[in-house]
User: Fold this.
Amino acid sequence: MKKQIIDVIEANKDAIIACGEYILNNPELGFKEYKTSEYVKQEFKKLSISYKENLAVTGVMGVVGKPDADVNICVIGEMDAVKCYEHPYADSVTGAAHACGHNAQIAQMIGAAYGIVKSGILNECNCKITFLAVPAEEFVELDFRKRLVDDGAITYMSGKQELIHLGVFDDIDVAMMIHAHALTPQPRLYMLGSSLGFEARQITFLGKSAHGSEPWNGINALDAAVMTINAINANRSTFKDSDRVRIHPIISNGGDLVNVIPDKAIIETYIRAGNISALTDACSKVDNASKAGAIALGANCSIENIKGYAPLIQDENLSKVFEDNALMFLNSGDIGHHQDMTGSTDMGDVSNIIPAIQPTIGGFDGALHSKEFSIVDKEFVYVTASKILACTVYDLIKDNAAKAREIKQNFKKCI
Ligand SMILES: [Zn+2]
Ligand SMILES: [Zn+2]
Assistant:
């Protein structure tokens, strides 16, 4: 069967590469992926895949197999771009560019769909397979997203979080996707890397303005903010290295005029950590530091808490199935393990509720989110990756989905 899957994907590789290149040339930011969404729908139509659209604004979910099956395997592709005006494929108006390689993910998801639908494996399968084109992985344009929340279009500010909220993942047992591995032009695979979870804070200090030469008549909000940053720094030695806590505040407003004691100052910060208990601990230390900074100066502070992403926990049993299939195309020396990512992803949220993986692959050069980021090995990134995904799905669904059931049974929910 796997040979059939691989042959079908090979025979359709022009369409798969065209998909990735179309999206590369039509980059769109999160919750605005209308052209990408339309392209996915057209591909689903070509493959006679029934789908639901407009999920979390632009998301599309195609489903094949037995509608009432009790096992549902999901292949995910993210649709959104990042802002990078200098990127050679950037949209000159919006600055959107696929400098994180998400265009490849959609091509891989569509490629896997070709392999699964056209190989005939569905005839012997007793489960469901879901192809999910997901909006808005990058946590950006927060003002635009807050407006979407205010308008009732979304409740959460990232695509997968919103889809979890909408119940899309309630019926999904196992989820997988592939991400680009930066600065790795060669065909490589990296398994089991974790990512950091994060929360964001916007802390506003309010004091009292006064002439700069008469500070005794004012309450200096900037000093309260500086005290807060010093208090955060004093906490750094309490974080264990293994928890990988990162706090990187900026003062986004520190006063308006040099001869006025500032009555307002704003700190914005992300707080990142490798596990949820360390993240919770670090967040409460930042909140305490903010209150302490305000009290020290007699100012007031308000803390806006913006929920970010959970840490990514890659399912080991599912990773093993994926890696075994990758070995059909790669040597074991081309596969690395446990290279943790310093960034964050909302696949982390998914991985805390169902078994999920997000291996990363080479074939890309340049740093993520930079103008140098590019696909250098289209064959590997678009076509071989599709084959690995489709063959992994096959291993999960064969024999009445024995492997998928085993993975599901051994999974421990974290949230
Ligand atoms: Zn990114
Ligand atoms: Zn990305």
Q: What stands out?
A: The chain has two domains: 2-194+311-410, 197-307. The longest helix spans residues 378-410. The mean pLDDT is 97.
